[in-house]
Amino acid sequence: MHRSYYPILPSQNKFLQKRWDDKYYSEHVKKVRDAAPVVDTRPPATFLHLHLRLKKLQLEEERLSTIERDNRLLLEKMSYIMRTRGRVDNRNNYMNKSLNLEKRKRELLRVTKENQLILYRINMRKPEYNHQKWQLEWEKNQKFMDNISAYPVDWWIKEKKTPRSGKSGRKSAHETQEDKTKKETKQKDENAEKEVEEQKTNIKTEQETEKDTRQKDEKKKKKKKEASKIKDEVKVKEQLQVPVEDDARVDEK
Questions:
Q1: CA distance 189 to 250
Q2: pTM score, two decimals?
Q3: What does each C-alpha distance from 87 to 83, 187, 235 come to in angstroms?
Q4: Cα(120)–Cα(230) distance, rounded to whole angstroms?
Q5: What is the rounded CA–CA span in Å between residue 171 and residue 162?
């Protein structure tokens, strides 16, 4: 290997020159590797107690130990109760005592009686507006409007049904006798249909009025029954309860 080595400087022996150069190079590499830096780039020294926080770990262990101890005690108590079915009687015959209990009861009865009387008056009040009368008046007004108006009801539908001759849509002056008879028969049929519809509407209105009268009669009967029940209850309560004036005197004393 030393024969193929070409030194930079002239030398008499290539073998020794190669050994010397390798030695100088290894020393140089060692010096570079072990050279002390001018700027200290190492991380700062860390203290162990700042990272571990032993006090916190100790408190956490104590808390867990107390929780485990409480759970164990509760479990022992529950198992004892399940085995022996307990030794405590849960019955309690204590009654809440109040000095003004009777007075409050009488006041509540008075308020309920007044509310029931107000409700009875509201339900027995007749309405001031009659919807059936309004319906009849509306039908009359519709008839008057049909008589006054230049075009009858649904006139555009009737025009669509009747055939037209020519682009302008005007009727031809030379109508045959057959066309006239057809129109007359159509008008008769339409008038008959209108009469039938009017009869149906009249029958429906009569049925609705009958239903309304029946419902009103039933409501009146129910209200009378409720009023009689309320009066009976009030009489019984008045007989059972103590008069309010005596209680007021007792309270004043």
A1: 89
A2: 0.23
A3: 11, 100, 51
A4: 9
A5: 10
Percentage above 70 pLDDT, the chain: 83
pLDDT one-digit tens code per residue, 153-181: 777 776 777 655 544 444 444 456 667 77
Task: Report yes or no: 18 and 7 within 8 Å, Cβ to Cβ.
Answer: yes
Cα-based distances in Å from 104 to 3, 51, 184, 229, 249: 127, 69, 84, 24, 16
Do residues 207 and 63 lie in contact, with contact meaning Cβ atoms separated by under 8 Å?
no
The length of the chain in residues reads: 253
pLDDT value at residue 22: 92
CB atoms within 10 A of CB 49: 8
Token code pair at residue 157: 């539908």
The predicted-structure confidence for 61-80, as pLDDT tens digits, reads as follows: 999 999 999 999 999 999 98
Q: What is the largest CA-CA distance in the chain?
A: 151
DSSP 154: T
Q: Which residues contact 52 (CB under 8 A, 6 or more apart)?
A: none
Q: Which two tokens stand for residue 209?
A: 């009025």
Please write down the long-range contacts of 243-246, taking CB distance under 8 Å and 24 or more positions apart: 244/106, 244/110
d(C-alpha 36, C-alpha 110), whole Å: 104
Residues with Cβ < 8 Å from 164, sequence gap 6 or more? 170, 171
Q: Nearest Cα to 120, choosing from 232, 239, 225?
A: 225
If phi > 0 it is left, if psi is from -120 to 50 it is alpha, else beta; for residue 92 that is beta
